[in-house]
Design goal:
The protein has a domain of 87 residues. It contains 20 helices and no strands. By secondary structure, it is mainly alpha-helical. The chain starts with 66 loop residues before the first helix and ends in a 7-residue tail after the last helix. It is 63% helix and 0% strand. The longest helix has 18 residues.
C-alpha cells in the first residue's frame, strides 16, 4: 500500500513496507560495482572482514550539493540557534524522515528522534511532535507504540489531519479495513474531499473493489495538475497498485512510469516497480532501474532477486551481502522487515521452513497484500498447506483482488482437498 505524509506531500510507504537500511559497517554497507571481486572477500564470503584496499567503497554518502541535504543543514543551524523552537524541530525531524524514506536509509529516522527528544520527555508533547514520533515508530513497524502517539496527538488536536491519515495507513497495513474506513471519513471533515477520496479509493483496492478504486483515484488525478509533483506521484503509485489488483499490467506500468518521472529517486516507488518487473520476468530491467540504489536494503534485495533470476555468476556475493545486512540488523535489535526476510530465506537461501516460520511471525504484525503473498508462497514451498489457513481466511473475508495471490491461494486450496493431505 502506498501511504502519504501530508507535510511533505508524499511518502510511498508499504508496497514494500519494510524499511530500507544502509549500514555503515563493512560488509553490510558495501556498494557493489561491476568489479565487486576487487573489494569483497573470496567465497564463501564469510563476514566480517577487513578491506585490504584503501580505495574500497564501503558506503556512499549523500552529496553536500543535494538540495535536501542543504535544507537539512539549514534547519539544523536554525535549531542550534533557537533550541527551544518546536516548529523548527518538527520541520527538521520531518525533513530527516522524508529523506531517509526517499533514499532507504533509516539512520535519518534516528536523527529525527534525537531532534524531537526534548519534547518527547514532556508529559504532554505538542501534537505535531507526537505525530512525527508516531511516523518514526510506524517506519520501524512499532505499530502499537505508533498508535499510542497518534492517540496522544489527537487528544491534543482532534482535527490533526496527518494523525488521521497515519491511523488509516496503519489500519490498512494491519488489515483492519473497517477501522481504516472510519479513519478515512475523518479526512473529509478535517483534510478535504481530495484526501478523503484518495484514502477511500486506496482502501477499496484491498476489499474486492479494485475497479472502484481505480475510478475514484482517476477522478482525483484529473484534478491534480496544479498540485505538487510529489502528490501527483503518490496518486500515480496508488493507480499503479489498483491496476495491478485488476491484472492490467500495461496500465499499471504506465502509472509506475509516470510516478517515477515525477519522483525518480523515491526508494519505495523504485522498489515497488522493481517488484512489478520481477513478476513480469524482466530481471535485467531491475538491475538497470536500481543500479544507483544499492545502499537501500529493500532495493538491494531486489537486485539480488534479479541476479538469481538471471543466474548471474555473482549471485553468491549478493546473497552474502544481503545476509550480512540482515545479520547486522538483528544484532542491532531491528526486527521490522519480516516480509523481506521471508523472500530472502525462500528465494535466495532456498529454506522454505525458515521462510514459513518468519512469515507466521510477520503475519502477527502486518497483513498487507505482500505479507499475505509471501506467507502463501512459503507455505506452498514448505509443503505445509494447512499453515496457510489464517491467510486463506483473511482473503475470504476481505475479498482482496490480486491475480498473483489468487493463483497461489487456489493451488493451496486444491492441495488441501487432496487425499494426500492429512486432516
Amino acid at each position: 500500500m502506498f501511504g502519504m505524509r501530508l507535510n511533505s506531500a508524499l511518502t510511498l510507504f508499504c508496497r514494500a513496507c519494510a524499511v530500507g537500511l544502509a549500514l555503515s559497517v563493512a560488509p553490510t554497507g558495501i556498494a557493489v560495482p561491476a568489479t565487486a571481486g576487487d573489494i569483497a572477500p573470496a567465497p564463501p564470503y564469510k563476514a566480517p572482514y577487513t578491506p585490504t584496499a584503501d580505495d574500497a567503497v564501503l558506503q556512499d554518502v549523500p552529496s553536500a550539493s543535494d538540495p535536501a541535504v542543504r535544507q537539512m543543514r539549514h534547519l539544523r543551524s536554525e535549531l542550534d540557534a533557537d533550541a527551544g523552537s518546536v516548529m523548527i524541530a518538527q520541520q527538521l525531524a520531518q525533513a530527516y524522515i522524508d529523506y531517509g524514506r526517499q533514499i532507504g536509509d533509516a539512520h535519518y529516522a534516528g536523527y529525527a528522534e534525537a531532534v524531537l527528544a526534548p519534547w518527547l520527555l514532556r508529559a504532554s508533547p505538542p501534537a505535531a511532535v507526537s505525530v512525527e514520533y508516531a511516523t518514526i515508530l510506524q517506519y520501524r513497524h512499532q505499530f502499537a507504540e505508533s498508535r499510542r502517539e497518534l492517540k496522544r496527538a489527537l487528544d491534543a488536536d482532534p482535527h490533526n489531519t496527518q494523525a488521521w491519515l497515519t491511523f488509516a495507513t496503519l489500519d490498512m497495513v494491519q488489515g483492519d479495513y473497517d477501522t481504516a474506513s472510519r479513519d478515512c471519513s475523518q479526512l473529509a471533515a478535517n483534510g478535504g474531499y481530495i484526501l478523503d477520496i484518495a484514502c477511500t479509493g486506496n482502501l477499496r483496492s484491498y476489499i474486492g473493489q479494485a475497479q472502484q478504486s481505480l475510478q475514484l483515484l482517476t477522478q482525483i488525478d484529473a484534478q491534480a495538475e496544479a498540485l505538487p509533483a510529489a502528490f501527483r506521484s503518490w496518486l500515480q503509485g496508488l493507480l499503479a497498485e489498483s491496476a495491478e489488483r485488476l491484472g492490467d499490467w500495461a496500465q499499471a506500468e504506465a502509472h509506475y512510469r509516470k510516478a517515477l518521472a515525477l519522483t525518480p529517486e523515491d526508494n519505495f516507488l523504485l522498489v515497488a516497480y522493481a517488484d512489478f518487473l520481477l513478476d513480469r520476468a524482466r530481471p535485467a530491467e531491475v538491475l538497470k532501474l536500481l543500479a544507483n540504489s544499492s545502499q537501500s536494503d529493500t532495493a538491494f534485495l531486489r537486485l539480488a532477486l534479479a541476479k538469481a533470476a538471471l543466474q548471474s555468476p555473482d549471485l553468491p556475493l549478493y546473497t552474502w551481502i544481503m545476509g550480512a545486512r540482515f545479520a547486522a540488523l538483528t544484532q542491532r535489535g531491528s526486527d521490522y522487515f519480516g516480509r523481506e526476510q521471508v523472500r530472502f530465506a525462500l528465494y535466495l537461501q532456498h529454506d522454505p521452513q525458515t521462510a514459513l516460520d518468519m512469515a507466521k511471525r510477520n503475519w502477527d504484525v502486518q497483513r498487507a497484500p505482500w505479507d499475505a503473498r509471501v506467507f502463501l508462497e512459503a507455505a506452498e514451498a514448505a509443503r505445509q498447506p494447512r499453515a496457510a489457513a489464517p491467510v486463506l481466511a483473511f482473503l475470504q473475508k476481505t475479498k482482496l483482488q490480486d491475480p498473483v495471490i489468487e493463483s497461489v491461494a487456489r493451488r493451496i486450496e486444491a492441495e488441501l482437498k487432496s487425499p494426500a493431505v492429512a486432516p
